[in-house]
Amino acid sequence: MSSPCAPVRRVGLFGGTHGNELSGVLLVRHWQEDGAEIQRPGVEVKPFLTNPRAVERCTRYIDCDLNRVFDPESLGRPVVEDIPYEVRRAQEINQIFGPKGSDDAYDLIFDLHNTTSNMGGTIILENSRDDFTIQMVHYIKNALAPEPCPVLLIEHPSLKYATTRSVAKHPIGKYQT
């Protein structure tokens, strides 16, 4: 029997991590205008446009990939004028939704992406040892049935992930073709 998970109190819904992936952008903008369908009693759900400058230009990123700069070095860099845009944005996101690795971090972040690969709706996980995340994936797969929803596990025991969603206690990525 699995141990009970702590209740989820704060959820981030991210779109636009890559500015040319518009499904998440459109959903976030929709939820920012009318969040009734995502609100639940006792849970703060925050839709958030992660890389607005890249979205404005409809390009993957401005200076560097936002989904690769949530590492300790980037998050700890001094804020100076010539800091890459995405590094500064990562620091801002970490302040709002983190700090990464702390008890104050958001409980859950869904980072919504697109791909041109023919993989359909796919869930990306970075940790198979997180009971909450495994239960959440099971719930999502059942909710989407009979539509297929593969799960891609990109886990490595010595790798520290530097993705936007890694700020949360329980990170989940969702890709849609």
From TrEMBL:
Where does the protein end up?
Answer: Cytoplasm
What keyword terms does UniProt attach to this protein? Answer: Cytoplasm, Hydrolase, Metal-binding, Zinc
Q: Which CDD domains is this protein grouped with? A: M14_ASPA
Q: Which molecular function term from Gene Ontology is one that the record holds?
A: hydrolase activity, acting on carbon-nitrogen (but not peptide) bonds, in linear amides
Name the needed cofactors.
Zn(2+)
Q: Name the InterPro entries on file.
A: AspA/AstE_fam, AstE_AspA_cat
> Which segments constitute the Succinylglutamate desuccinylase/Aspartoacylase catalytic domain?
8-171
Looking at the record's lineage, which domain of life comes first? Answer: Eukaryota
- Main localisation: cytoplasm
List the GO terms this entry assigns under cellular component, sorted alphabetically: cytosol
Q: Name one Pfam family in it.
A: AstE_AspA_cat
- Gene3D superfamilies documented for this protein: Zn peptidases
What family classification does the UniProt entry report for this protein? Belongs to the AspA/AstE family. Aspartoacylase subfamily.
List the protein's name: ACY2 Aspartoacylase
